[in-house]
Each structure stands twice: as C-alpha cells, then as structure tokens.
Specification:
By secondary structure, the chain is α/β, with parallel strands linked by helices. The protein contains 6 helices and 7 strands; from the N terminus they run E-H-E-H-E-H-H-E-E-E-E-H-H. It binds inosine 5'-triphosphate and magnesium ion.
Length: 215
C-alpha cells in the first residue's frame, strides 16, 4: 500500500507533516500533505476515538484523491484533567485555536486544580519548574487504500508529565509543556531523530510499517 513514490499524509498540521516527511524519507519516500491539496475541504473529525478520526481523515482524503493515504489523529491525555483534552486536543481553546492558546488553556485548567497531594505536584525540576500532572501523548495512524477499501492501523503512546513552564523550542503543539522524566528533558528539547525514537507517532509508525510488511 506504500508502493507509490509520494505518500500523501492527510494532515494540515505542518509540524506533523514535517515529522512524517523526515521519517518516510528514511524509507526513500517523498511525502505530500493536505496543505498541498487545498481543493480538499476541511475534514470533520467527529469520531469518539483517535482511531476513528484517523480512519475518517484517511478515507475522506483517499477517496477524493484516488490514491492510498496515511492519516494521523493524535492528542494529549492529562491524568489530573480526567484524560482531557484527548480527542479535542486541537480545539481545546476553541475551534481553530493556536498551539499557544491551547498550551495557555492547559496551564490555566491545571492551575485551577490546586495541590491534589499527588507526587507529580510536589516534584520540581532542577530549574525550579514544577510537574503539574502525569500525561500521555497518543497517536492513531490509519493507512487506507481506496482501490480495495482496506485499512491498516496502529497506535503509539508516550508517557510524561506536564510542566508549569515551557522547555525547548522544537516540535509543535503541546511539546513545550511535555516533560520526559527518563530523559530529563522536554519533548521540545529533542531533535527530530530523538523525538521519532521515543514519541507516540514514532511508535505508531514503526508498528504500522511492520503490519504493512505482514499484510
Ligand atoms: O487533523 P490534522 O489536520 O492532522 O491536524 P491537527 O493539528 O488538527 O491534528 P489532530 O486533529 O490529530 O489534533 C492533534 C492535537 O494534538 C497535538 N499533538 C499531536 N501530536 C503532538 C505532538 O507530537 N507534539 C505536540 N502536540 C501534539 C496537536 O498540536 C493538536 O493540538
Ligand atoms: Mg485535526
């Protein structure tokens, strides 16, 4: 299903598109994103799960373009917020919200909770910043072939903590507020290669590629 030289990734998120371009280049593939196909209307992401939304994006774009399409639906689940923002991560601060607005809302919501006595809230990092809650990035991928109607799917996740202030300027989205205790660094402090090795998206892509090899 990935026999085409150019793989279309059904995303309008430039940060995701760059990560896929980097990862798939290692397989000798070029990528295009929906930013290259402005004629495809905005896709309504009304699924209840990351996996359902990934299938919706892949099928909508694949049927419109007539080629196999890879789609990613991802987001952040924050323990202290009962798993929010979850599938609403992109529109947490409102429809069309910027990454900055979503990050500001996340800190606002966590700030409202006060000290719940959890270990996370007591711990501070060497620079004096504090860990506010356990959290997990989740990524669901769906590869859809319009010729057969078949999907290949995979999920990945990475655990960490939300910090009370940003660390690093790399990555995108919620990366500046996501702390990786095992590495002693923030997600936005990692290189593209490092993020690919440990991230939810990297794990999902490795699983998808191995399933593709078996199909
Ligand atoms: O739907 P597409 O067009 O792919 O782009 P999107 O940005 O709307 O993507 P999602 O619907 O999957 O929403 C994902 C949200 O989770 C955030 N997110 C996903 N992966 C991330 C990562 O690796 N690092 C930081 N934030 C991430 C991202 O910034 C969005 O706010
Ligand atoms: Mg989206």
């Amino acid at each position: 299903m990935l026999s085409h030289e150019v793989i279309v990734v059904a995303t309008k998120n430039a940060g995701k598109a760059k990560e896929f371009a980097h990862a798939l280049k290692q397989l000798g593939k070029q990528t295009a994103s929906l930013l290259d196909y402005p004629q495809i209307p905005d896709i309504v992401e009304d699924g209840d799960t990351f996996a359902a939304n990934a299938r919706i994006k892949a099928k909508t774009a694949g049927d419109a373009l007539g080629v196999p399409v890879l789609a990613d639906d991802s987001g952040l689940r924050v323990d202290a917020l009962g798993g929010e923002p979850g599938v609403y991560s992109a529109r947490y601060a409102g429809e069309g919200a910027t990454d900055e607005a979503n990050n500001a809302k996340l800190l606002r919501e966590l700030g409202k909770l006060g000290d719940d006595g959890s270990d996370a809230r007591r711990e501070s990092l060497p620079d004096g910043s504090r860990l506010l809650s356990k959290a997990r990035f989740v990524c669901a991928l769906a590869l859809y072939d319009p010729a057969t109607g078949a999907f290949i799917e995979a999920e990945g996740a990475v655990d960490g903590f939300i910090t009370d202030r940003p660390h690093g300027t790399g990555g995108f989205g919620y990366d500046p507020l996501f702390w990786l205790p095992a590495l002693g660094r923030g997600m936005a402090e990692l290189s593209k290669e490092e993020k690919q090795r440990i991230s939810h998206r990297g794990e999902a892509l490795r699983k998808l590629l191995s399933r593709l090899g078996q199909s």
